[in-house]
């Protein structure tokens, strides 16, 4: 299957997905809403076609039309959000229905949205983790395809927990995407 990846930041999950491409999927394009983000430079250096456009420059509607066109032109059939920090419109989600996944740094349905690790620590949870889920119109709300857990240790800061979870994200995301696209 031909996979497009959407990023906004450093792109470590994108790198994990690229590293595990193979019989289940190939990465045909990396797209970003932030033209200067480090993850995009990494993709360029690794010979992966890229697309970048700032919604602030052209407005959200124009941005999404261009994004959609670029993804299709690159041959993408499925999309993986990897640290993509922008809400996709209902229109966009509708055009790719059932064909977008996201990785979220909590054990959904707990802690949708931001500051997941701070909230898990504040709640004195014993475990944290990450979830791969289908993207629907509801933020972090689609069916969960896979999860990984990590312990929350005494004295953990959000940064310490984030690092522990991120290591699991890099294992979980390629595995779940491979399973999802091998069906
Ligand atoms: C990850 O923790 C991911 O779960 C969240 O944003 C972070 C992105 O990190 N959605 P990276 O850009 O993949 O390194």
TrEMBL record:
Keyword Hydrolase on entry: no
Domain Formyl transferase N-terminal: 2-177
Domain of life: Bacteria
Entry EC number(s): 2.1.2.2
Reported function: Catalyzes the transfer of a formyl group from 10-formyltetrahydrofolate to 5-phospho-ribosyl-glycinamide (GAR), producing 5-phospho-ribosyl-N-formylglycinamide (FGAR) and tetrahydrofolate.
Lineage: Bacteria, Pseudomonadati, Pseudomonadota, Alphaproteobacteria, Sphingomonadales
GO cellular component: cytosol
Official protein name in the record: Phosphoribosylglycinamide formyltransferase
Pathway(s) this gene product operates in, as recorded in its UniProt entry: Purine metabolism; IMP biosynthesis via de novo pathway; N(2)-formyl-N(1)-(5-phospho-D-ribosyl)glycinamide from N(1)-(5-phospho-D-ribosyl)glycinamide (10-formyl THF route): step 1/1
Residue spans crossing the bilayer: none
GO molecular function, one term: phosphoribosylglycinamide formyltransferase activity
Claim: Transferase is one of the keywords in the record: yes
Binding of (6R)-10-formyltetrahydrofolate, residues: 60, 85-88, 102
Family indicated by similarity: Belongs to the GART family.
């Amino acid at each position: 299957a031909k996979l497009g990846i959407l990023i906004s930041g450093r792109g470590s999950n994108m790198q994990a997905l690229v590293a595990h491409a193979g019989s289940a999927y190939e990465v045909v394009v990396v797209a970003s809403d932030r033209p200067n983000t480090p993850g995009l430079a990494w993709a360029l250096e690794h010979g992966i076609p890229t697309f970048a456009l700032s919604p602030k420059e052209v407005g959200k509607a124009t941005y999404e039309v261009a994004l959609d066109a670029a993804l299709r032109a690159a041959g993408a059939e499925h999309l993986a959000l990897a640290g993509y920090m922008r809400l996709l419109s209902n229109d966009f989600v509708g055009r790719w229905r059932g064909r977008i996944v996201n990785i979220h740094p909590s054990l959904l349905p707990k802690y949708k949205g931001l500051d997941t690790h701070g909230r898990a620590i504040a709640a004195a949870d014993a475990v944290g983790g990450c979830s791969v889920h289908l993207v629907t119109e509801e933020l972090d709300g689609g069916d969960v395809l896979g999860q990984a857990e990590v312990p929350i240790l005494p004295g953990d800061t959000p940064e310490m927990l984030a690092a522990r979870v991120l290591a699991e994200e890099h294992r979980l995301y390629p595995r779940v995407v491979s399973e999802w696209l091998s069906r």
